Amino acid sequence: MPVVAIAPFVGVPKDTVDRFHGNQLLYVGWDKHLMFYAPVCLCLPPSMTFGDLVRGSLSEAWSVHPQWSSIDWSAARWLRSGEPFEPDFERSLADNGIGHKEVLRLQTPGLEALPGAV
Amino acid sequence: MSRVFIALQANEDSRCIVEAIVDDNPEAIVNRQPAMVKIDVPGRLVIRRASIEERLGRHFDLQEVHIHLISLSGHVDETEDEMTLSWDR
Amino acid sequence: MDMNVKKKLGLKEKYALMTRGLGWETTYESMDAVFPQTRYEGIRIHDWDKWEDPFRLTMDAYWKYQAEKERKLYAIVDAYAQNNGHLGVTDARYINALKIFLSAVPSLEYNAHRGFARLGRELPGVGPQIACQMQAIDEIRHAQTQIHSLSNYNRFYNGFHDWKHMNDRLWYLSVPKSFFEDACTCGPFEFIIAIGFSFEYVLTNLVFVPFISGAAYNGDMGAMTFGFSAQSDEARHMTLGLEVIKFMLEQDPANLPIIQAWIDKWVWRGVRLLSIVAMLMDYMLPKRIMSWKEAWEVYFEENGMALFKDLARYGIKVPDCVELIKKEKDHLSHQAWNAFYTAGKITNFHTWLPTEEEMDWLSSKYPDTFDRLYRPRFEHYRELEKQGKRFYNTTLPMLCQVCQIPMMFTEADDPTQISYRQVTHQGDKYHFCSDHCQHIFEREPDKYVEAWLPAHQIWQGNCFAEGADPTAPDFDPLKSVLDYWHLAYGRDNLDFEGSEDQKNFAAWRAQATRN
Question: Interface pTM (ipTM) of the complex?
């Protein structure tokens, strides 16, 4: 529906990819691990490999969690926009079909968090 | 029947207002909280100028209630002599 | 000289003469040209004279009573300052609740002033014009009294020093700011349903009544007096809000679906905004009178539902979001505190872990959720503190496109799973914390694609200190963003334990009680 306004109004999106200096936004959450109160909002080059995302930004954000070092990456599951997704760690975000403002969820079966979903 | 309520700041004038409300509304439930008093009544709450004046010992304009008011619920109807809050209309 | 002694006018007669008698039909310009904003929202009004002001307050009485309120207020504010009242609060942690309140609320009041001043001009009926003008004056009074009160705390405590600057920039303050700017950019009828009805009538009790009574309980006469002084006007605003909705619904049956959609939207927008008040009540008042959940049950479930029951005669339904809200009440304050405690590097107030005794109180008030879900989380943080590793989140959070709150809310039936919603609009993805925020976006996407989301603005490079060079080798983005917010690292933020506020309060209180 159009905005209810006294004259026609067209919104100008504030967060189009051209505003991020060659990078793109990426949101990542670690399911059932709520000591991280919200998914992280990252801004990364689309050429970064998926492996570098995990070893870099995500490790920086989440390695403080006692279970981070126990994750079995071959068994970890990922969701991309809510759908199951198998990332290729050697390939870039773009090649993994991860565009601007994509949301990823990490699921670590067997590590369903500590009591209280810490 | 839903309840209506009025909440007043706890002070010297409102002490008399609360007493008047309690006398005029036998079903009133008075809940005293820090710095305030909340009065709930099923359906209808009436505040009478005459009852307040009797206790204050002076003339009282019902609109003075605004100075002490914190909150209320229900439909308001106000005349010189009575202010009522009610859900029945 | 003969004098005709006239009988004093009755309230109704006086109101009729001093309000309705002031209006007129325009002649050399059409009424539509004079009041151009009343048609585009689709609301139909046939007879403005059907408007009733139940308080029948006229301008002369209004000034008289407001002046009396001001005299009382400033007498107390002065006495509080002269008596070093701030040292009488239960403990200095409490001051942090005020930092949040006074960072967020004065600008809400000011925007309410702007909104009602506009309505006082734009609504054609004399009754609503006068009621809206009174409310516009009330709201600017609230903003002013809060700013005056703020100065009494700012003299002694950190984090209060630049509320206006922070209000336009600091990440979490975009939540209240965007809420009110959303309302102010609506048409006049949606504004009055949003603020006058949904916010004032259904929700402000929760901001001002139990929280301000709680301030009194914690020895803060300053906050009590500005809070209750504002709330004394609120009762009149609530009555206006109720009158507005009855009037609009009675004027034309075609108004019902429009109003229902606004109620659905604004009750939800308001509830999300109040998440932070839930946290103030449960975690930031050292002495507690009632839990957020209890306050919610009294002021929303009992009082709010009585209202909706009454409006059912017009066909108004309880908003759908109420089902979700009912489930969230057991979680809201804990999830909010979990967020702010861990985001403690980027706040203008201090955070802390609840003591054992406080956790027991929380578990008694939230028997179904606290011990199972939240106590273990806080105990984990306590363990880290003991190891000297106080946990701070170091990342920027993903935000909801509509309410702008970090995506910290969990699924209605699984409190261990963050709730994600997303839509694609014109090729871009947008994310939401809930179905209700998503629906608000879908109704008017052109409005919400323009949201100024702090996390995204930081990544765009729009939130660094003036003159900063993000390409410099020693560039520290966190420090630069804190500079941009006017936050001093280590003074305004971080844990209460070890803070300057904590030390100063202890030293001053010792001076006040010993020679």
Answer: 0.97
